[in-house]
Write a structure and sequence with these properties.
Strand content: 15-25%
Radius of gyration: 19 Å
Structural class: alpha+beta
Number of helices: 2
Order of helices and strands: HEEHEE
Number of strands: 4
Largest sheet: 2 strands, antiparallel
Distance between the termini: 39 Å
Length: 73
């Protein structure tokens, strides 16, 4: 389903960072990413970012009073 929603065939990972690659190595040969591979990479990245922002948001809810930590309710 996600393969139908996102069309990332022309998406270039190197455009965003020179350390990115547009291939992976499988059994000592370079393999290009299919559209579904690129979609899964992007969705996993978004999922990770969402989880990290929730974690950071929870850190902001912690108050320190007299060197003791309390969660805001």
């Amino acid at each position: 389903m996600q393969n139908k929603i996102f069309n990332l065939k022309t998406f270039d990972f190197r455009k965003y960072s020179s350390s990115n690659r547009n291939f992976f190595i499988y059994e000592n040969t370079k393999q290009g990413f299919d559209n579904i591979d690129k979609v899964n990479i992007i969705l996993n990245l978004l999922h990770t970012l969402r989880n990290r922002t929730r974690y950071f948001e929870n850190l902001l809810k912690i108050n320190k009073v007299n060197n003791e930590s309390y969660n805001k309710t």
